[in-house]
Structures are given as structure tokens and as C-alpha cells.
Amino acid sequence: MIFRSPFRDITIPEVPLTQFTLQYAGERANQVAMIEGPSGRTVTYAQLAGGARLMAAGLSRRGFQKGDVFAIFLPNLPEYAIAFFGAASAGGNVTVVSSLYTPDEIAYQLNDTGAKYLLTIPQFMDRALPAVRQSKVQEIFVLGEAPDATPFTDLLKNDGQMPAVVINPREDVVVMPYSSGTSGRPKGVMLTHYNLVAQMCQLDSAWKSTEGESMISPLPFFHIAGIVGSLLLGIWKGIRLVTMPRFDLEQYLQLSEKYEATRAVLVPPIVLGLAKHPIVDKYHLSKLRVIYSAAAPLSENVARACGERLHCMMGQAYGMTEVSGASHVTPDEPDMNKPGSVGFCLPQMEVKLMDTISGAEVGQNELGEIWMRGPNVMKGYLNNPQATASTIDADGWLHSGDVGYVDDKGYMYVVDRVKELIKYNAYQVAPAELEAVLLANPAIADAAVIPSPDEEAGEVPKAFIVLRAPLTEQQIMDFVAGRVAPYKKIRRVEIVGSVPLMRHGSKRPINALAGCGS
After folding, report:
1. Which partner for 426 in 9, 239, 296, 405 could form a disulfide, CB atoms 3.0-4.6 Å apart?
2. Do 214 and 242 touch, CB atoms closer than 8 A?
3. What are phi and psi of 305, to 5 degrees?
4. H/E run at residue 459
5. Is residue 509 part of a domain?
6. CATH number, position 466
7. Phi and psi (nearest 5°) for 150?
């Protein structure tokens, strides 16, 4: 049985992403597009569009050509948008790098994408420089000044003229965020101009945002929810975006009150804080109309508690990087909101549920793996045809690795995962990646990493370790912490005599998994 959207079909323009997103920049020339939250610094639509044009011309003068890769390694700042649209306008692929990554993790992404340039800030140079030295990056640009880097302003010193770039929206990749997919180490997700334009149009059919609204943007722009749900959709729709370089609950509340935030795209740990933290009562958030939670499951109880406390609608979105962000959302209408559900599939999407044992299609109110097909499904994984083929079948169905069901009214519920990924505070953590790090320690003979339930983070990585030489649990955690981004750290360790193999051949302690709903 194929499930389709209750929303009407939409027309998806086949145009380049920058052209589509900035199509109203001229009409809004003097309107504030973005505000740097902590400082109050503003960027108008004229400055945003003009800066992107100057950057594209500057890159062209340096020999940057269609298909070249530009890496952005920044916290959330207005310059993120200028760099993103500038590189895209020049026909480039933008690869967004986690601001939490270690030098080795950055170097892996730079080498995998073949990035030509990198943009960062002085505070990140201690990680950016050693990463670039392991790559083929030709030049580092920096906001401000730093040794061994070119000021970003130098790139903008030109007349804004550049050769015309012909873009095929359906085929040409514009952004490559990294995702672990259903398993394994992070992979470059190739999203085309058409993928992202389609996603924006799909979301707009369900989220009735209007020009002049205000939104604080704490979700990092290197995450697909931050890229699409905040940055792209906000600028296209004329929503004033207030950026936060790092999340702090009190600062988020201060900014929401000061700039009269009307909507929010958040993740469950932030929603939990809004629902329970006493500091929330100090601030007036009466303008806040709707909050969407994305990137990880949100319990019905927390959703209700947050909505009731803030007197706003609390909705959810479900999807993955491989579908350009979302496949399902709660409509932006309170009478269609169903707490605990992720809503309906978006226009032009088809969804079916497949029994995880027999492989047969199932119907309403029956559990199955969620398969999706639509204009927002990625082109594939960069340099990895095998992973692409195992995720998108010959008929174009993307196998999500998530398990859910659709009720009698068409609402989707996501209840479990087939895939091995750990969702720590909405970040993807691949067990196989952590196991490889652990096995690099000569004192460790064998290792398996699983998701362990946690009230605040949702899940944390837990390691089962077989030792060949003495190590304490803390030494094991410290060993991993020094080699991965903070969100990937092992949080719990159990020393065992052996790690049994499960029936599919993967190393996972069967008794431990039983307590995780797997």
C-alpha cells in the first residue's frame, strides 16, 4: 500500500537554488534578513544578495569552476548565508563541516569531497589548519584575520562580474552535508538544486509562514534541519533570522523575547528544556505561535508539556539528510496537530511500509520499515555507489532504516529503528565509527557500541569492551574523547569477556540490545 500526501500537488520550479531562494531580495532590499544574535549586527537582503554575488565573482577570479567544492566550517553567523549562496552561484558544491569536528574528522571530509577552499573563523584555526595540511585545499579564508589564512573580505573585493554558469537543477549537486545514513562512517549526501527547491516548496505547503515573521536559529547550519528549516526557508519566505553561534537556553530565551520570535525549528533536548526548565518563566514569549521539533523522536508527553506551557502549537517533522530534510511534517494548523505523530507525508512524496522480516508491503496500523520516493530524495552518496545502491533501490525507493506505522487518518508514527545509528541530542553517531576508534587502542581486543537510553540526550553511546591489557572505564572514554567530536564521545562503558555475534553478523550484545527496543 502506497501512502500519499493529503496536501495538494505543487509546482516545483527547475531553477538554481540561489536564484530561487533570493528571488525576492530586490523587493526586500532594505529589509533585515539576518541578525547576529549576541551582537545585534544586521544584514539586509541587499547586503546578502550583493555579498553572494561578490563572493561568486571572487571565486571565479581564483579559478573556481562549476563542480568545485567549497567547504564551510563556521558557527551560525550571517556570513554563512553569504558563503553558501556565493559558492552555489559560482556553480560550486558546498560541503558543510560540523563546527564540533576534530582535525582528523575535518580532514576526512575535505579529502572525500576534494574541497578546493575552506572558510572558517580565527577561533577554529587550531583545528582547520592541521586538517587543511592533510588535504588538497588551496586556500583558507577567515572571517577577520589569522595567520596562514586570507581575510574573507579580500574575496569580496571585485566588481561582481563573473562568467555565466549554466546549471542543470536536476543533475547538478549544490550541497553535500555528511550523514552516516543507515550505518557506517559519515558519507557525503549529494543534494541537487532541484532537491532543495523541491523541499522548500513541499514544506511551504504545510508550514504557513509569512513574510515579516521572526525566528531564532539555534540549529547548526551544517545540519540539514538548520540548512533547510531555518536558513533556506527563512530567507526565501522573508522570515527574519536571528543566529546563535552556540546554543545557550537563557540566551535563546532572551533573543526570542527581544526579537519577538513567532516560530521555531528545534530539537527534542531544547524542547525538553522549554517544557521543564524554571528559567523559562522569566521571559515573555507571547508572540511564539508554533514550534517544530525535528532530527530525533519527541515524546507525546514532552510535546504536550511544551505546547501548554508556552501556549503555542507543538508540531514535529520527520526525515533524514538523504531526503533533503523532511518527508513528513505536522501541518501548521492546530486542529490538525496530533501530538506524538510526525504528521503527513509531504506533497509529491510516496511512502510505503515494508515488513522487516518478510519484506512484504503492509497496510494501515501495521509496523514496517519506512520507504520513501519523491523529488527531494538525494542523488546518492559521494564516491560510494555501493552505499547508494543499498539505500536507494532500482525503483527509486529510499530505505530509511526507521520503523513506523500509519493510522486510519493517515498520520505517521515513528517507533523504532532497523538501522544501527545512535541519536545523541539529535546528532547522528555511527557505532561502527566508534568501534574503529576503540580498536585502534592496543589494549582493546574487541569492542561493540550500542545506543543506551538517556532521559536528557535521548540516547548515548555505550561501549562493550574486551580487554587484552588493563584499562579503566574512564581511560577508555578519554581515549575516544580525544579523537572524535564531543557529541560522539563514549558515555558508558562495560567490560565484558566477549562480544557475541548476532544473527546478521554484526557485533552487538544481544542482551543489551533487548533493552533498547532493537
Report:
1. 296
2. yes
3. -65, -40
4. strand 458-467
5. yes
6. 3.30.300.30
7. -95, 130
